Amino acid sequence: MIYTQEQIARYLERIQYDGPLDVSMDTLNGLIYAHQCQIPFENLDVFDFKKEIDLDPQSLYRKLVLNERGGYCFETNGLFYGMITSLGFDAYPCMCRVMFGVEDPADHEIDHRATIVRMDGKKYFCEAGIGAAMPPEALEVAENKWQEMKGYVYCTRTVEEGWYATVRKTKSGGEKMELLFSLLPVHEIDFVRISYALSHSADSKFCRMRVVNRRTPRGYYDLTDDVFTEEADGKKTVVKLSRDEIPGILKEKFHLDISEPLRPL
């Protein structure tokens, strides 16, 4: 067990989850959605504060649970994986490529982690750590099997040998490939150098811009540098913020009470 019962209880309080805790799909889906809605995806430590990212499970617990911060995928999905395995789920970490704006996997490096859960002879892709762009529940890994979840429709599809895509149906009836993942089990240590590169390289998106995102029951909140976007019931509102307005938005919309000065843009 990675986390103690006391730590699990504090995590459940943090994500405001009071549902079942048995090893079931209802529990798994509830935990994914609650985690997405309460723990934001954010790179403030990398972009604004120039702090080192520590992927040790206890460090993740202190930052994301006790200190009520968010994190980027290696942190948020790392915490989620540790919590569900401590609850008894049969799970392992997997490597991913986020494909926003990219068509060919050869054009984009591995830059993300998620979790595969095994249950009742099936495998499920679980993503809790990248904000509102991902499935809000566990997605069965089954070729072109469309699955409806909380108003969204997704499937998985083989892209190349060993790699699968999460595909979302758009409101216009099209399809959008969001992310590629591998079913090959990996270990926590496999993410250390990837995370270090993404948090230090001048070419990394996380070093070049501020990115904060949180799912909401009606859509999502997003902050990219100084541009705040709210999507609610399919309608988007976009506002450019002044430097003085950003801390208030971080607190009100993302539940991030930041006392350190943010980086000038």
TrEMBL record:
InterPro entries named among the record's database cross-references: Arylamine_N-AcTrfase, Arylamine_NAT_domain_sf, Papain-like_cys_pep_sf
Molecular functions per Gene Ontology: acetyltransferase activity
Domain of life: Bacteria
Family, similarity comment: Belongs to the arylamine N-acetyltransferase family.
Annotated protein name in UniProt: Arylamine N-acetyltransferase
